[in-house]
Amino acid sequence: MPVYGSIVEKTYAALAALTPFHAWNTFQDLLRQQYLPEDDLRQIQWRRFRNILEHAWAHVPFYRRCFDRAGLKPADIRSREDIARLPLTDRTELAAAFPDACRANTIPRRQLRLVETSGTSGAGPFRLWIDWDALNEKYALLLRNYSYAGWHFGRRMTALWNQAHEDYRPWWRRSVLKTVVYHLFHRKRWLPPLGPVGPLDEAGAQIYRRRLMRLTPFLLEGDARALYEVGLRCRPGNLRPPPVQVISSAASATSADLRRDLEALWGAPVLNNYGPHEAEGLACECLARQGMHLSLDAYLVEWIVDGRPAGAGEMAELVITDLGNRAMPLIRYRTGDLARAGMRRCTCGRTLPVIHDVAGRQADALWTGRGWFTETDFQDLLRPLGMAYRCQLVREATDAYRVRFIDPAGVDGDVARRLQEALGQQLGPAARLVMEPVAMIRPEPSGKFRPLQCPGGEGA
After folding, report:
1. Residue 239: pLDDT above 90?
2. Which domain CATH number covers 413?
3. CA-to-CA distance for 419 and 405, rounded, in angstroms?
4. Mean local confidence (pLDDT), 222-243
5. 178 vs 145: which has the higher pLDDT
């Protein structure tokens, strides 16, 4: 490890010993726990689940009401099978209870930090109280996720997000401490944010390429769409890809096929990373690339279909319980994200199980009668047409869709025809498609690109 990294680690260790900033000690515990026998990990998980359950029932008015309506007390949850008896919660219910009814009455507000999500689904930002201990743990989880990629303090890091990401907000609207820590301790730098969905011109591509050549990051993290767009334009002809050793893809669903495209463009392994803003550090891939390691010691995850536990391999909604945040617990919280149910072991030696990659948001998935048609399915359909991240499908009514596709040179009849045929085969003979060539596609107010939009709910 370089001298710089060693200095950072010693500084963190001193802070953990002398101040409430104990993230370094938590990080060391997490590194040890990733190799514990799985039975030991599950015992840690169950103990923490019981603690958060009892705390929420005793000190959070929102959960006390939820438990009372269900006729339950924490003592009634004696086994993992009993968890299904607890009511599911979602951001709408918690937002209605905000700011005080969903907050633990034992923690003064001055000791809390307010976190706000991006509001990707169109429902607006979701606000969350988080206590100092939970902040320390989530930062430590982030460090463990980075370690899966071989990153450590002293190695450079670069980020590439959309224009609305919190890292690009004015300094008075973001955490100054977080920005300073990333800049100094992580040696992290930010590339210019990517704006509307559309072709990146040559001048823009050169800006990205020059900065990457100068920064030479070990780890490049970013939105999958931004990584694809910039990677596509940064190496015209036979130019070598910019010097990046590992890529962490987050914020957008990344299918296996698109991951292979990204790896070919960048000449580096791509690791999937999943963690909603309200549950950071939830799951991340290691260099073995066999699925995302679930932070079993910090979260309890369920896969739910129509209120029941999903079968292995079934596409289902992810439901989580955050085992660390006592300020505003998230218990059986519906993330709105779809993934295939099941966990398995990775050959890397870590005992934290791996889960399937997340396929996208349920609100942006279509039910076709043959199963879910998700964001990753859509991007895989577009790849052979050269249209990945160049198209948006909007359901306007039952069996009626508007297809916006980027065609800056004018209507390309062949592209439109092949696109219409491919979507027709997927959506069925009753589907009515209106093709709309556009120069660019505007992202959501959150800054994220939603390839599939289903106003009014899922379905086809």
Report:
1. no
2. 3.30.300
3. 9
4. 78
5. 145
Residue 459 covered by a domain: no
DSSP, collapsed to helix, strand or coil, labels residue 316 as strand
Q: How far is CA 268 from CA 208, 245, 265, 457, in A?
A: 17, 5, 8, 38
> Is pTM beyond 0.90 here?
yes
Q: What is the sign of the dihedral through the CA atoms of 282, 274, 84 and 340?
A: negative
Q: How far apart are CA 257 and CA 254, in angstroms?
A: 8
Arithmetic mean of pLDDT over the chain: 89
Which residues, including other chains, have CB under 8 Å from residue 136's CB and lie 6 or more apart? 20, 21, 22, 23, 26
Q: How many domains does the chain have?
A: 2
Specify whether 394 is located in the same domain as 449: yes
For residues 128 and 261, membership in a common domain is answered with: yes
CA–CA separation, 175 vs 438, rounded Å? 37
Q: Which of 187, 212, 194 is nearest to 265 (CA)?
A: 212
User: Is the residue at 172 inside a domain?
Assistant: yes
Query: In the chain, pLDDT over 90 holds for what percent of residues?
Result: 57
For residue 412, pLDDT over 70 is answered with: no
Q: Give the domain range for residue 248.
A: 1-359
User: What tokens were used for 156?
Assistant: 């450079």
Element (H, E) at 290: none
Q: What dihedral do alpha carbons 17, 22, 27, 28 form, nearest 10°?
A: 30
281 and 410, same domain (yes or no):
no
* Residues 272 and 376 sit within 8 Å (Cβ to Cβ): no
